[in-house]
Write a structure and sequence with these properties.
Blueprint: H1 22-34, E1 38-44, E2 50-57, E3 69-71, H2 77-84, E4 88-90, H3 93-99, H4 101-106, E5 111-119, E6 124-133, H5 142-164, H6 185-196, E7 200-205, E8 210-213, H7 215-221, H8 225-228, H9 233-236, H10 243-255, E9 259-265, E10 269-278, E11 281-288, H11 308-321, H12 327-342, E12 346-353, E13 356-363, H13 368-372, E14 377-378, H14 384-391, E15 395-397, H15 400-406, E16 419-427, E17 430-439, H16 447-484, E18 495-502, E19 513-519, E20 524-531, H17 536-554, H18 559-572, E21 579-587, E22 592-598, E23 604-606, E24 612-614, E25 633-637, E26 643-647, H19 659-672, H20 678-690, E27 699-706
Antiparallel strand pairs: 1-2, 1-6, 2-3, 4-5, 5-6, 7-8, 7-11, 9-10, 10-11, 12-13, 12-17, 13-14, 15-16, 16-17, 18-27, 19-20, 20-21, 21-22, 22-25, 23-24, 23-26, 26-27
């Protein structure tokens, strides 16, 4: 188990002794009001980009080590609460795994959590979180909500007054709960009682220090009681210093549920530890592990096992990197998640290309010319970035003097930083690039921190390699998509036209939606359709369908025949993909359109008076289903000033919302868009339908309006 005090706050110095512990008392009051068993207060950094943990209560700070410093943009409850200025409630581990996977990976225990902003109407100061055992009700009560909101409002006002008065906040010790006191007759008798029973009994405070142990406990673990008192149990018993056992200890404190584990006291004594938690600490019962004789397992804890704090860091950051898709996502996640976690102030991400280092992105430099000096640097150059990549060995420089002792001054890029970590990015044995983290002040890299950063560099390398491959495929796909869709719509006399195409925001930036507008010998023809899938195959088939429609149009086939011919072609191609489609001939002289439909959403028509109709077109099945399918046609009046709206289903499919409701909203928006330029109407409809939501499907829109 780790030493939770290793990451604890600096205790107040003599100048601040006796000062009012504002944050600690406010947090303790909130916990008492709602019977929470732990919590923490975060304060916003001066640049308002990072939330920094100021004080924690009820748990060792090491439990929250991955979130000591977090970006305001992080998908973490306290950051969400501050950004959205509302209470965030997570009722249990299932909901935590669904909404906040990074926390669930590191703390897979049953507990409920609430996060609230600390802010006035015009100023944000920070945020707070509190936790309860998993047995808490699934909803936070109105009373709990009201008490917490009022307490955070009061704390925000106190912080504002302190700022206005120029009173800086001094460091406060974490509040871990009251220390057990003895002195009454009952307490003395309790000690006598525990001394007489054969089971080992000891009491730990919230930070894991032994406050009491009976004689049997000392005999069972093989250490005198006097050597146990005042220290942490795993410090006195090295064979307990293992992540497996620490996990049970963490689970007990966080979930407030009893846990247990069996450990080997060398050389061959197996002991059962049962942990019974409360808000004030943990009672531990130690007994011999009875049952069948057990062999010593092959994976007995090593002399220096990995610290779970370091493992938690890596799990949290690895979870963040799994969310990255492209190179820009990797750089953004490293900047937003890793920089705050490790305390660095600058970042440069370099990639290896054709024997040189290329800058993929950076953060923390106002003057971009500083970063430009890295770009194009040969891999054989005597610079720390190039050497880290070519050697595959990370370099840590705690001061500039250390850096200049190894590298000549002419090879050291002046970037305004005072300490650096140069992390080679190696994926599958192949050099990918270098990640450079800069620190504004001299920085000591502990062995644990170096281990975390080194492990992290491998995860960044894998994420970066995946992202560069994705970006390369995406550029290829986007180029293919652009080549298959018309660059612009033809100018046809007497007809206004506008079109939009939006790729889906989830997955590859390519799809099977298409549209086209064509001249015919007597009028105009238009088509819009959607081939199944979001890949190169769908896009290729889309190009074939669009070309076929153009060919059948050119030979003068009417709409129903065009659909039938395209359907048979799609079946003959044996591509196993289906397509929906609406095709029309538009006679501008007679002011009418003849439409055929194959399993496609019904178009919208706004008449010259501004009334909007959802056209009820007869139609046939999807293209590619039945080689003998017929496609009936519908004649629709298209008077000058009418507006026909053709679209694919990506425009009206919103998760969790009825499609008819979305279509009705779209029709209402179309009714308000009177006498506007068609390009503006297209933008308005796209904005109304898609907004800022994630789009799982691509979207095509084609507008046609006969001129008055």
């Amino acid at each position: 188990m780790p030493d939770p005090l290793a990451t604890g706050p600096t205790p107040p110095d003599s100048a601040s002794e006796g000062s009012h512990p504002l944050l600690s008392l406010a947090l303790a009051g909130m916990m008492d009001d709602v019977h929470a068993h732990s919590g923490a207060v975060y304060l916003l950094s001066p640049d308002e980009q990072v939330l920094e943990m100021a004080v924690m209560a009820g748990l060792p700070r090491a439990f929250a080590a991955p979130w000591e410093r977090i970006s305001v943009s992080s998908p973490i409850p306290v950051a969400d609460a501050l950004r959205e200025r509302r209470l965030i409630w997570v009722p249990g581990e299932e909901e935590m795994a669904s909404r906040y996977q990074r926390i669930a990976v590191v703390l897979p225990y049953p507990f409920a959590l609430a996060a609230l902003p600390i802010a006035t109407d015009d100023t944000a100061y920070g945020a707070v979180f509190l936790t309860w055992p998993g047995s808490h009700a699934s909803d936070i009560s109105d009373d709990e909500r009201g008490r917490l909101t009022a307490a955070c409002d009061r704390l925000a006002l106190r912080l504002r007054r302190a700022a206005e008065a120029g009173r800086p906040l001094v460091p406060e010790p974490d509040f871990l709960g009251p220390t057990a006191m003895a002195g009454t007759t009952g307490a003395v008798e309790a000690v006598h009682l525990l001394a007489r029973i054969p089971d080992g009994m000891c009491s730990l405070d919230v930070d894991g220090r032994v406050t009491y142990a009976n004689p049997a406990a000392g005999e069972l673990v093989g250490v005198p009681v006097g050597e146990l008192l005042g220290g942490q149990l795993w410090s006195a018993l090295p064979w307990l210093n293992d992540p497996v056992y620490e996990d049970r200890y963490r689970a007990a404190l966080i979930s407030q549920h009893a846990t247990s584990f069996v450990a080997l006291r060398p050389p061959q004594d197996w002991l059962m530890f049962r942990l019974h938690p409360s808000r004030n600490g943990i009672s531990v019962r130690i007994t011999p592990a009875r049952g069948t004789v057990r062999e010593m397992p092959s994976d007995v804890p090593s002399e220096h096992p990995a610290r779970l704090v370091a493992i938690s860091h890596i799990l949290n950051l690895a979870s963040a990197l799994t969310e990255a898709v492209g190179v820009a996502d990797v750089i953004e996640l490293v900047a937003d998640e890793i920089m705050p976690a490790v305390g660095s102030r600058s970042l440069v991400m370099l990639a290896s290309e054709s024997g040189r280092l290329r800058v993929l992105g950076h953060r923390g430099y106002e003057d971009a010319s500083i970063v430009d000096q890295f770009d194009g640097m040969p891999l054989v150059a005597q610079t720390p970035g190039a050497q880290a990549l070519s050697s595959g060995v990370p370099s840590f420089f705690e001061t500039r003097a250390q850096l200049e002792r190894i590298y000549p001054a002419r090879f050291v890029t002046p970037d305004g930083m005072a300490a650096w970590a140069y992390l080679p990015l190696i994926a599958s044995g192949r050099p990918v690039g270098t990640c450079v983290l800069g620190y504004s002040q001299p920085h000591h890299f502990s062995s644990d921190e170096r281990a975390v950063l080194t492990s992290l560099s491998g995860l960044i390398a894998q994420a970066l390699e995946r992202a560069r491959l994705y970006d390369a495929k995406n550029r290829l796909a986007h180029g293919l998509q652009s080549a298959l869709l018309p660059n612009s719509l033809p100018k046809l006399s007497g007809l206004e036209a506008a079109a939009r195409y939006l790729p889906g925001t989830q997955g590859m930036d390519i799809g099977g939606d298409f549209y086209d507008l064509m001249r015919t010998h007597d009028a105009a023809a238009a088509v819009i359709g959607d081939v199944q899938g979001h890949n190169v195959t769908a896009a290729g088939l889309m190009g074939q369908v669009r070309t076929a429609v153009r060919a059948y149009t050119a030979v003068g086939q009417p709409p129903g025949r065009v659909m039938e011919s395209t359907n048979r072609l799609l079946i003959d191609l044996e591509g196993d993909l289906l397509a929906s489609c609406v095709y029309l001939h538009l006679d501008l002289l007679r002011h009418r359109a003849l439409l055929a439909r194959a399993g496609h959403p019904q178009p919208l028509l706004r008449d010259p008076e501004g009334r909007v109709h959802i056209l009820d077109l007869a139609g046939g099945p999807l293209l590619g289903v039945d080689p003998s399918a017929g496609y009936p046609t519908t004649l629709v009046s298209m008077l000058p000033g009418s507006l026909l709206v053709l679209y694919t289903d990506g425009l009206i499919e919103v998760p969790g919302v009825d499609m008819d409701e979305v279509l009705a909203d779209l029709a209402e928006e179309l009714g308000h868009a009177t006498d506007q330029p068609l390009e503006a109407v297209a933008d308005r409809l796209i904005a109304k339908a898609t907004g800022n939501r994630e789009r799982g499907d691509d979207t095509a829109l084609l507008l046609l309006r006969p001129e008055r």
